Amino acid sequence: MMLLALLFLSGCATVENNHDPIEGLNRAMDGYNEILDRATLKPLARGYVAVGDPMIRKGISNFFDNAAYPNTIINDFLQGKDKQGVEDLFRLLFNSTIGLLGLIDVATSLGLEKNNEDLGQTLGVWGFSQGAYIVYPLFGPNSVRDTPTLLSEPFLGGLFWVSLVLGAEVTVPLTILSYIDQRSRLLDASDLRDELALDPYIFTREAWRQNREYLVHDGNPPTKELVNGEDDWEEEDDDDWEDEPAAEEQ
Length: 250
Prior knowledge:
Blueprint: H1 23-39, H2 41-51, H3 54-67, H4 69-78, H5 82-97, H6 106-109, H7 119-125, E1 133-136, E2 140-143, H8 147-156, H9 158-166, H10 168-184, H11 187-196, H12 200-216, E3 226-227, E4 230-231
Antiparallel strand pairs: 1-2, 3-4
């Protein structure tokens, strides 16, 4: 469950918008996810952090990041980032071999920095608008443009292909551990959100949307301009499912 993924990377946005046409349903799904998270993943993640050695947890995080890295490499090339794609391919090779299946991140010390690409970002680079905000059961924040990523990521990750060889008795526990690991990385962010946000739903929605635009534009999203004291966003006026422009920097 990635209910709070990357919540604080783009700032503390709390302004409502017109890009949530199914807000009532989304709030219901968000509430369901929150109840499920508090009953399962959150306590498991807290226990994992409490009993796990930080170095071991770091190695586990490195392993899962490395296993999912083919997704980044494929989307590098789909976005026309050939140089980055080649570098990421070498990063995967070095970490999978010298780094013992990714447990040790040797590639970063060699100057091969970690990148983050997925199908939703690729569609954004190709000009697809983000579209309406959607909260999925279990998976949390998403959008029309990013929905295909839910289908592509599992099949482009290493765990899927390992499952074809080793079977469910190995990959199911690994998958569960990966979700606990991911949730553990978000504990501080989720706690801070709950303390600061007047409306956690709006806070999460706006931060998630802004962060996705931040990633699509490689950290340089377009900025707003003020016209007659108001934000001027003259985008194509199709319907309520139109994309929201990137939020101004905080």
